[in-house]
């Protein structure tokens, strides 16, 4: 049964609000709540509040803790590696040769794509950690550097001596991995 806001329960149920009933001052006696203002949103109830699982742990000044930053960056690495793997599999299934002719013939294997993605992600993480240690503008500087690296990484994929399917697959892989790493690492960085 939901309240009307004036301290009396209403006959019509409002699915987003309900009488608290958990605090002593909100206990219902003879169908009338003891105190007004005891109606609250269902989303505020711990059972229904899923944001507690999605939010980062914070310390007393509102900064994400080191543990939550590490966890979020590990999630970013896994997501980037997964994105690279999925795009490689799609490109391979679509018939892209995934072979580049530079100083001989280089075949782009699934393992090579995954390891390259992991190494790029770890390098980005390392740079971000250094910036967090030595500057207060870590998020801003890291985002600019990562964006520049992503743009520079596209030139070899676009101008490579390869089939169009290979170029499209490699470009999509670079963009997806870059987007995941930039967005999630930036989100995990300290606030300025």
From TrEMBL:
The keyword Hydrolase does not apply. Keywords: Membrane, Transmembrane, Transmembrane helix. It comes from the Bacteria. InterPro entries: DUF6069 (IPR045713). The chain crosses the membrane at residues 74-98, 110-129, 141-160, 166-185. Pfam families: DUF6069 (PF19545). The keyword GTP-binding does not apply. This is DUF6069 family protein. It comes from Streptomyces laculatispora.
